[in-house]
Write a structure and sequence with these properties.
The chain has seven helices and nine strands. The chain has 269 residues and is an alpha+beta fold. It is elongated and about 80 Å long. The model has no long low-confidence stretch (mean pLDDT 87).
């Protein structure tokens, strides 16, 4: 069981307890600037606010870690979106515990709405904006945590699904995601604006990282060439090679205002 000290939830504590629920064959991948999985994230260390590709088992492990935080805190509010109510059944007992412990718990999904159970309220929705998302959101007096993922494939069996998403402990960010969900349910919004905004920023940051790494490699290569060839590698040629290798980075930095603008979409009417 996750035992919290009298301090906010840390990334290290969270990941340690995610591993308590994580099967040996579960996977989380880093993603590149195009959102494609590129390497194992668990071996390099995960951080909040970064987007990853989760398999279903990893998504559930992170969900259970947040639910455990809520049970230990024994106050506040839990909200979960589970795509379809048929996916709720394996988690029924845990959410009954949450409902008995917290002020309020809500589960949002597609399908026939289940009867209310104490403080646990079920909300049925057919809204397409929420259909691909799996979310567990906790707001307590001292700790906050959010896991949100959007399905990245067409799998129909839950165990085969993959999700692109992130986790965070930032209360302002969590509040904005909660507001998006509530506005969609109220018919005041048609998409998860905060998720899309953060995804655009994440991909821009990864694109910059890739270009900086490429530029660093090019500069180092030019310097090594100068080191090896000596006088035969003239300063003018050295400067030309550097200019050529850094051209891609200059093009990208010129596009940054548009990229950042795309990460801050205008509110829907």
């Amino acid at each position: 069981m996750l035992v919290l000290k009298k301090k906010p939830l840390s990334n290290e504590d969270f990941l340690r307890h995610v591993r308590d629920y994580l099967p040996m064959d579960a996977s989380v991948w880093n993603t590149d600037q195009n959102g494609k999985p590129c390497s194992c994230a668990m071996s390099t260390g995960m951080v909040e606010h970064h987007f990853y590709r989760f398999d279903a088992e990893a998504m559930l492990a992170a969900s259970h870690a947040i639910e455990e935080v809520a049970l230990e805190e024994a106050n506040g509010f839990v909200l979960a979106t589970m795509q379809e109510f048929k996916y709720f059944e394996p988690h029924r007992e845990r959410y009954w515990q949450l409902a008995a412990t917290l002020k309020e718990a809500r589960v949002i999904a597609k399908g026939k709405r289940l009867p209310r159970h104490g403080h646990l309220k079920f909300i049925a929705t057919n809204h397409k904006a929420l259909a691909p998302f799996w979310t567990v959101l906790y707001r307590g007096h001292r700790c906050q945590a959010l896991l949100i993922g959007r399905q990245a494939d067409e799998a129909k069996i839950f165990e085969q699904k993959r999700f692109d998403g992130f986790y965070t402990f930032n209360p302002d960010l969590i509040g904005r995601v909660r507001r998006d969900i509530e506005e969609i349910l109220a018919g005041c919004a048609a998409r998860m604006r905060e998720f899309e905004r953060l995804l655009a920023i994440d991909q821009t940051a990864k694109r910059l990282d890739a270009e900086f790494a490429r530029g660093h490699k090019a500069v180092e290569g030019a310097l090594r060439e100068l080191q090896i060839t000596g006088k035969r590698y003239q300063a003018r040629r050295f400067a030309a090679d550097l200019e050529k290798s850094l051209h891609r980075l200059k093009l990208l930095t010129g596009k940054l205002p548009n990229l950042v603008g795309a990460a801050h979409p205008l509110p829907s009417a």
